[in-house]
Amino acid sequence: MSERHKYDVIVAGGGPAGLMAAGQSALQGSRTLLIEKMDQPGRKLLLTGKHRCNLTNSASIPEALAEFNKNGRFLTQVFYCFYNQELQSFFQDLGVPTVEQRGGRIFPASENARDVIDALLGWCGKVGVETLTETKLEELIIVDKQVCGVLTSQGKFTTPRVILATGGKAYPGTGSTGDGLAFARLAGHTIQPLRPSLVPLITTSRVPQDLQGLSLSNILVTVYINQHPSNHLFGELMFTHFGLSGPVILSLSREIVVALEDGKEVEVSLDLKPALSHQTLDARLLRDIQTLGAKQFSSLLAGLLPKKLIPVCASQTGIPWDKKVSQITSAERKSLLAWLKDDFKFQVSGHKGFEQAIVTAGGVNTKEVDPHSMESKLIQGLYFAGEILDVDANTGGYNLQAAFSTGWAAGRAAGSTSEVKKKK
């Protein structure tokens, strides 16, 4: 085989984890090839943070790990080596300054995901990464539990080290179709069940047209599974034509997807005034009723709700919007109180699947991966980075940070003869 088909490291997948891994490998002096099956790397990265690219979060490492579902502790070592400060410095050096926004979310100052991709691609080229696009990985060549090479749609390449950074199954239109997971399974790895996560929900009853596109901030959403409270989260929700979305819904969706798969009944309840106890809110309603006695019920609601929610509240509580406030009965006041705190509910019938999921839950079992180097414990020379691993988090930049951190660790380890060392 010609020398041009021999590499020290081959990285499969041109997403954030793969680009970081390839660049770090090349920095160690290894001849590195990045293969990407789409016509250009970074397609999915363009979609993150509504095209603004939520790179990371200012949360402390313990706080960030708590945002991950189940396997967050696996990331402890790599986060202490390469976390938000290191990532921001990395992009600053590439000419991409960052800015912190609400909830500790950190974005490129330009709020343009394209700047992040261009910077990563430029960096990879500068440090010597060779890239093949429209090249599909077809086989991992493994002999005696040692990586020897890969077979691709462009031919065979020999290498002692392969980094699988092919992602999960979320947003398949960007190239994430779970290909690498099949190769990991063939290599002997356990693949935890794959499910869409951070995914919008479909409700049984149609959301009123006037509410579609409306966002509610600072509300408390409670999930009921088989009529029992299961989880709750404070944050922002958005009504859509099919149901519910927004950060708080996306973060709660993981367990909802599992419950629906198990045939369980799922309902979400909205507390529109979580800062006020039932007693405090009831006292406010009594005060407003006394103050606004001659006005219509809609005037009372105007001080409590966005305008678009007023007819929905009137309809669901059974209180006519044009009823005089002074005529509201005690029973109607209690009905309004219950609706504001508990009774604004939606039955969940489904979700939007991998096509609209931000991340994939499940993947390569982390117990079979070295948490320092991201190398397989089963196959020498096989590494993993990014969403292919069974690690996923809530919204807020944590998933991208995990991709960059695991890519950093895998690239440095595969590209050098020494393992990644933990920072002092």
Q: What key phrases describe this protein's structure?
A:
FAD/NAD(P)-binding domain; 2 domains; six-stranded antiparallel β-barrel; five-stranded parallel β-sheet; 13 helices; 21 strands; about 30% helix; disordered C terminus
How many domains would you count in the coordinates?
2
The share of residues in helices is 25-40%
Number of E-state strands = 21
Number of helices in the DSSP assignment = 13
- Oligomeric grouping of the chains: single chain
Give the overall form. Answer: elongated
Mean pLDDT: 95
CATH architecture of the largest domain: 3-Layer(bba) Sandwich
The side-by-side strand order for the widest beta sheet comes to 13-16-15-14-17-18
How do the strands and helices of this protein lay out in sequence?
Blueprint: E1 9-12, H1 16-27, E2 32-35, E3 56-57, H2 61-66, E4 68-69, H3 76-81, H4 84-93, E5 98-100, E6 105-108, H5 113-126, E7 130-132, E8 137-143, E9 146-152, E10 155-158, E11 162-164, H6 179-186, E12 191-197, E13 201-203, E14 215-225, E15 228-239, E16 243-245, H7 247-261, E17 266-271, H8 278-291, H9 297-302, H10 310-317, H11 330-343, E18 344-351, H12 353-356, E19 359-364, E20 382-384, E21 392-393, H13 398-415
Parallel strand pairs: 1-2, 1-11, 2-7, 11-20
Antiparallel strand pairs: 3-6, 4-21, 5-6, 8-9, 9-10, 12-19, 13-16, 13-18, 14-15, 14-17, 15-16, 17-18
Helix pairs in contact: 1-5, 1-13, 8-11
